[in-house]
Amino acid sequence: MKNIVILISGSGSNMAAIVRAAQRDHWRKTLGAQVAAVISNRPQAEGLALAREHLIATDVVDHTRFATREAFDAELATVIDRRQPTLVVLAGFMRILTPAFVTRYEGRLLNIHPSLLPAFTGLKTHQRAIDAGCQVAGATVHRVTADLDHGPILAQAAVPVLPGDTGETLAARVLTQEHLIYPQAIADLLRNL
Ligand code: GRF
What we know:
Blueprint: E1 2-8, H1 13-24, H2 27-30, E2 33-40, H3 46-53, E3 57-60, H4 69-81, E4 85-90, H5 99-104, E5 109-113, H6 125-131, E6 136-143, E7 153-160, H7 167-191
Parallel strand pairs: 1-2, 1-4, 2-3, 4-5
Antiparallel strand pairs: 5-6, 6-7
Helix pairs in contact: 1-7, 6-7
The chain binds 5-O-phosphono-beta-D-ribofuranosylamine.
């Protein structure tokens, strides 16, 4: 079985979309794949309860308990490796990862970023797109490399920026597309693994 491990920090709506797609499209049967665990760096992440509702194993590695980024990433890797992952999927995981961590999962580490990369790496992407006068915005699924938000692109979706949009309204429009392209990109990748 190809194990997918999903890392979250917050609401986990992308994680839930992946879990729903796995169930709806019978990934166990059709792809020989399953969501093996959901791991959060925040004990209070809303997504943890959502994962448990779907009977998915959860782990917490609380970054505030570690003195250094390296120590946190090392423990995170230990917890991830217990699930023998084929893919490690970042879904709203709000931590900068060390080069050692990225190298360890090279080729099987994915992220979704709420912009049309390579535009608007980093945070506050929606407001920055509005401020720049962009007429389209969107989301990107990409492989994770040591260069933050710069790995090879696997999938993108575009949405219009509408008059009167705020960061919040645009984020909500982009998020509906994230929920479509992330499960799709993962399924496409698993098919070829
Ligand atoms: C998404 O917009 C994702 O692209 C970004 O953080 C947000 C996470 O949302 N990296 P959720 O936790 O999946 O609901």
